[in-house]
Amino acid sequence: MNCIIIDDEKMARVIIKTLCNEIDSLNLLEEFPSAIEAIKYLNENKVDLIFLDIHMPNFSGLDFIKSLKNPPKIILTTSDPKFAIEAFEYDFIVDYLLKPLELPRFKKAIDKAERKNLASNEVKKETSKPIDIENDFYVNIDRRLIKIDLPSIYLIEAKGDYIKIKTETKDYKVHSTLKKIEEKLPDSLFLKIHRSYIINIKKIIDIEDNSVLIKKDVIPVSRSKRPELMKRLDLL
């Protein structure tokens, strides 16, 4: 995790820096004697973790916390225990370490930060990735939204300024690009095997050399896409 230290006491920064050097997963980027200087840095740089002192002149650690729009994980370091309840009202605050800091307690705080960081990354992955299996999707045809059953699609072909979508029951002509359609399709079913073709990999009947047979259509497979196709078929 990339981290920074914010503490107005030089000796406190030295101690935290020394402790950070004991943890392989920590990469200390910068240290700051004031929160104001740190804000300028954070406006241009991304960090995963901040070691933050509460008591600092002019702009306290709590003032700093309230100023953050997209805060990273924070471990508070202080000699005053009375702010702990208020501090933990913020879900991005991982731990509250009382000075003088010691390595065993410091390691526990880092373990918490790593678990929270991992959990946050997993949530981001889950919320950002497209849903793999959907039963249908919509295309715009003659100013009408037409719903198409996804599993019924076996071939999508680029033809000039439009694409042709072939399904089990009928074909559709859509003014769009292959790239735009590809972005809507779940990876579990579809693969672009050529610059002009996307196929439903579960509809493949046969593979021979650099082509696949789907229904009665023989579709070319580009050399660059063949390894990916083979890998995907192994997972079916």
Architecture overview:
By secondary structure, the protein is of the alpha/beta class. The chain is built from seven helices and 15 strands. It has helices at 10-20, 35-42, 61-67, 84-87, 103-128, 178-184, 226-234; strands at 2-6, 27-32, 49-53, 73-78, 93-98, 136-141, 144-149, 153-159, 162-167, 171-174, 190-194, 197-200, 204-208, 211-214, 217-220. The strands form four sheets. The protein has a five-stranded parallel beta sheet with strand order 2-1-3-4-5. A five-stranded antiparallel beta sheet has the order 10-9-8-12-11, with no helix packed on it. Strand 14 and strand 15 form a beta hairpin. It is elongated and about 75 Å long. It starts with a strand and ends with a helix.
Question: Biggest sheet: strands side by side, in what order?
Answer: 2-1-3-4-5
- Count of helix runs: 7
**What summary fits the major beta sheet?**
5 strands, parallel
- What ranges have pLDDT less than 50 throughout 5 or more consecutive residues? 126-133
Provide the β-strand percentage band.
25-35%
Shape: elongated
Could you tell me the number of beta strands? 15
Distance between the termini: 36 Å
Order of helices and strands: EHEHEHEHEHEEEEEHEEEEEH
Helix content: 25-40%
Evaluate the radius of gyration. 27 Å
Integer average pLDDT = 86
- Helix-strand makeup class: alpha/beta
Topology overview:
Layout: E1 2-6, H1 10-20, E2 27-32, H2 35-42, E3 49-53, H3 61-67, E4 73-78, H4 84-87, E5 93-98, H5 103-128, E6 136-141, E7 144-149, E8 153-159, E9 162-167, E10 171-174, H6 178-184, E11 190-194, E12 197-200, E13 204-208, E14 211-214, E15 217-220, H7 226-234
Parallel strand pairs: 1-2, 1-3, 3-4, 4-5
Antiparallel strand pairs: 6-7, 8-9, 8-12, 9-10, 11-12, 13-14, 14-15
